[in-house]
Amino acid sequence: MVMQFASRGRNAGKAFWGCSQYPRCRGSRDATGDVSQPRQLPKNRVATPAASGRARGRSLSRGDLLISSENTFGAGKLVARDGENLLLEYFDAPGQDPSARYQESVSRRSLTRLTLSPELRVFWIDQQDRWRSGRIIESNEHNDIYVRGHEWEGFVPEEKLFVRWDRPLSDPVGFGEAGLLESPLLADMRLPFLQGILRQRSAVHGMRAVLSSCIELHEHQVETAWRVLQDPVQRYLLADEVGLGKTIESGIVVRQQLLDKPSLRVQLILPPFLVEQWKRELTQKFRIHDFKRAQIRFARDDEPQHWEPADLLIVDEAHNLARMAGSADPALAARFARLAEVASASPRLLMLSATPALHNEDAFLAMLKLLDPAVYAETTAADLRRRLEARASIGRIFLGLQPGLPSSLLKARLAEIEAEFPGDEDLTAIVARTGEAIRAQNTDAVVLEIQALRNHVAEVYRVHRRMLRTRRTAALEGSYRVGGRRAPKVLAFHSTADQDATEVLDRWREQALAAAEGDREALSATGRALAQAVSFTLDPEALRDWAAERASTGVDAEERAALERVIRDLAFVSRRDTVSRPIADAMSYLFSAKERVVLFGPTTASAAEIADELEELLGSKSVFRHLASEPPDQAERALRRFEQIRSAAVLVADASAEEGRNLQFANVLVHVGLPAEANRLEQRIGRCDRWAAKDTSPWRSYMIAGETENSFAGAWRRILTDGFGIFDVSVASLQQAVDEATDEAWRILLEQGVIGVGEAITRVQEMLNREIERVREQDALDSLETTADERSVYARMMDVESVADEFADLTDRLLSAKRVPGNLRFEPIGNPMVDLGGYEILGRLPGKQAQIPLIPAWRLLRDFVPLKGHQGTFSRSIAIEKDDVHLYRYGDQFIDAVSDFLWHDDRGRAFGMWRWLPDWRRDDTPVYRFDYAVEANPLEFPKTSDLRRELARVSLGMDQLSITRRADGMLPPIIVTVWMSADATELTTKVHLDALSTPYVKPHPAVEGGDYALNRTRIERAYELISISDWRSSWRNAEAAAQQLVLGRENIRDAVARASAIASSDATTRLLQLRLRAARSSGAELETLEQDIYREEVVAGALAEAIRTPTLRLDSTGLVILSGRSIGED
């Protein structure tokens, strides 16, 4: 027992002995100091039969607070029986008429009792018939519920308590009219935070995943993700060139879908060496591990038995599987068939491939059939080839349609385009407007009209309207910094291997050429054999094995003799002594103490041997391996350790690291010889020629070769450098032509030997130049990012990012217990505003007393306890640099939990204060404040809207939230504040607005003036100005007038008008593009397009209606009384 003091009743202020665990115990005294009486059941308490299932224990009674698993409404009050069911009533706000409360009949077995946990917000009607609010302090197994309200605390029986249901508060005025007014302090903290969240939502068009992902923000990636996420049908081919971030674009989509549906099923099908990389990227950058209910499966693309249909299917390097569609190998054909089955059963599909359609018609068509099997069911590769050829002429015209051309040339190009589309009235109109702009010499208008014309035609002739492709252009490089190309410095080492190989191969070449002469196919095959042999120049053992294998095939006697000579000459050559050890010695002088080097060996065996030699020189902790002979997970771990090391290190790799890997963090790239295929070398260089941070130093490149320049290896190096230009620019978009030019170059070397290098360079240049023009013709259409208006997600988003420091400060003010009294009082850890830190739910007051946030315990357990110990930051650069860090933005789990609580909680939603202004010379003036969020919500379905119900029907099974994101892009959400007088007219005079604009400041004895919160006692002074009989109607009349004023405000009307124009333009463009495609389609494609057209018509109508009649959501309201006297003065 300890000494206690009675806080009320006739013994108030007197001491008594009480239990230290009071009121949890059944102590001898209660809060009044009286001997506690045995607990009596109220006479009017009617018992009901015990609920089955989980609502066991005490029998259910009318007035009990219960939760049903049959809905998501949270706490409801038991009010009656309904046959075999029970009727629950849900409480929203005190001012709500009881007859207006929502009721639902639920089964008994679905019920559990509401846990009356500490800090749970409760309401009740006191003996004066007035609403009161407070928080539960404690309750026990006897159902004694101890509540603390303003200047009062005590026991309240459960049947008299009300708890808000788990729905956002829709009627803050209900609290005001009931006299339950809070201090403006919390309102002044929560509103800026919610405005910041709404501003971020507006900027990213509801695409929460972008801001909260730990990534650098780049325009082409953001816009690509937006194109996918605003489409109800999310089946896309992401075809960006190598190194431009297809994985990042996919990661944004994955995170957004997880935010929309935390139980999402995701299946990824990936090349084996990319599985761990994808896991790491999605975990570190997109925090997929935050979504505990999600099912995210990573599968190798060579293990179809592990592929399953999912809500979202992602296939990386999809062209590799697509090439199996027509394979003669039953196992490979079956693998593609399984992919088609899984893709068909998955509503969302992302395929990643940089392989262009040109010259890859079979594989590309297979990918199109995965995207849209109904449309392309009957399409053949020949059909696709003809479509590409038809597009080429259009692309050629558009390449010549540049705004800077002389007027006569522009008019000629426009005439050609108009002739190509004789029945297109919209195109004719654009051409006419362009002609008028040319005649008027209006340069800006010419640019806009030509862009509109390009967009219009591009959509019709795009290979597939859901193929998104970004190319490397000068404009892109200005905003997306890549590592760039580096011509390798030739590093000769003391070895005769290069010259020895050239001599023996030249003798073989003569015999092989004689055997193949006159047969074009045989020459090509023999040229490829020469290429393979030359690639083994710096691996004598591999070259010897090559010769032995070829000699065992059906070659003639002369060639076999030459091959046997190769075997004999190389029989006693030691690879380790002539190549591996000298290379390792040369490597030790190439890099500084902190540089990381990637070395590509000519074969797996030689690379492993070079790694062994480097370990002897540098130690095993500085040498890492990425080899086909190593298990993929081991190679992945080695790559991660290599990336994280901060001292000198070497990663030794073979061809297994040439595709899909990101090696942009390396400082030095070393080629030991060069691969025989130019496309392989392009892939290899692409590992480093990727995105690079601004402070990244340029990487260097070396090529290790023999001392003799006049060799086959030297000739091939010159062809790659001067013919392909591969060390200067990317040739990734020219894959087919590069393969053909590669074969042509080796054919010339086969026929002429090393003296043919000049002719080979010229021939390669000619072939690539022709192909470049053809690719430009295709990309003139496919690379256009057609948009229906000038909205830019990226531009708006960067505006928001520029004020991230402001958001950090206002959020910290709202959360940190060390900042402002009366906030949510989280315990700050570290300093997340500028570095790493966080906000914990358990803090300590002086004297070691525990303190938890002012959030109900059940919500803390659900939303915040799982985040215990998390680290976060408001700094994007720190979130990118560090692992497992929350980036505090709209879309982050912690920030969203805070935002969700504020939308549901009633604290700070209705406030009241008496503002004492010593210089106020007017009468006491009551003023109402209303803060409205204005937004378009096409998914709200009023009974009068058949159109919106039809939208629900046609979008069933699709991503309906994509339509909301599209609406956010057209009418960004806005918060509007309106001040209204007691007679329901708007206050617009400067003197009033100035008096109302200053923040809440409590009175201070040393200073005249200050603000008094209208608590339960002080509100009586407000009743003197607005009688209690008129109190409700006065506030409601002001609210009704405020709603009309908001919708009639000039800035809102202008925003609605702009959004309506954007929506109309967007709908017109989308429907026109679909109809133009439909006019040129037939069969299954036409049927699918007609369905798309109808869906877009319904979506467009619903968007137009939602924008025309935007939703008003009242966030908060308040009463401010402007007075020249203190609240205590008469």
Helix-strand blueprint:
Layout: E1 2-5, E2 15-18, E3 65-68, E4 75-82, E5 85-90, E6 102-106, E7 111-113, E8 121-125, E9 131-139, E10 145-149, E11 152-155, H1 173-177, H2 184-203, H3 208-212, H4 219-229, E12 235-238, H5 246-260, E13 265-270, H6 275-284, E14 295-300, E15 312-315, H7 318-322, H8 330-345, E16 348-352, H9 361-371, H10 381-399, H11 407-420, H12 425-439, H13 443-461, E17 467-468, H14 474-479, E18 489-492, H15 497-516, H16 520-535, H17 540-551, H18 557-570, H19 575-587, E19 596-600, H20 604-618, E20 623-626, H21 632-644, E21 649-653, E22 668-672, H22 678-686, E23 700-705, H23 712-723, H24 735-752, H25 757-782, H26 793-801, H27 804-815, E24 827-830, E25 837-840, E26 843-845, E27 849-851, H28 857-864, E28 872-873, H29 876-881, E29 886-887, H30 893-904, E30 910-916, E31 925-935, H31 946-954, H32 961-970, E32 974-981, H33 990-997, E33 1010-1013, H34 1019-1025, H35 1031-1048, H36 1050-1079, H37 1083-1108, E34 1111-1123
Parallel strand pairs: 12-16, 12-17, 13-14, 13-15, 15-16, 18-23, 19-21, 19-22, 20-21, 22-23, 28-29, 30-34
Antiparallel strand pairs: 1-2, 3-4, 3-7, 4-5, 5-6, 8-9, 9-10, 10-11, 24-25, 26-27, 30-33, 31-32, 31-34
Helix pairs in contact: 2-26, 2-27, 4-5, 10-25, 11-12, 12-13, 13-36, 15-16, 15-18, 16-24, 17-18, 19-20, 23-25, 24-25, 31-37, 32-37, 36-37
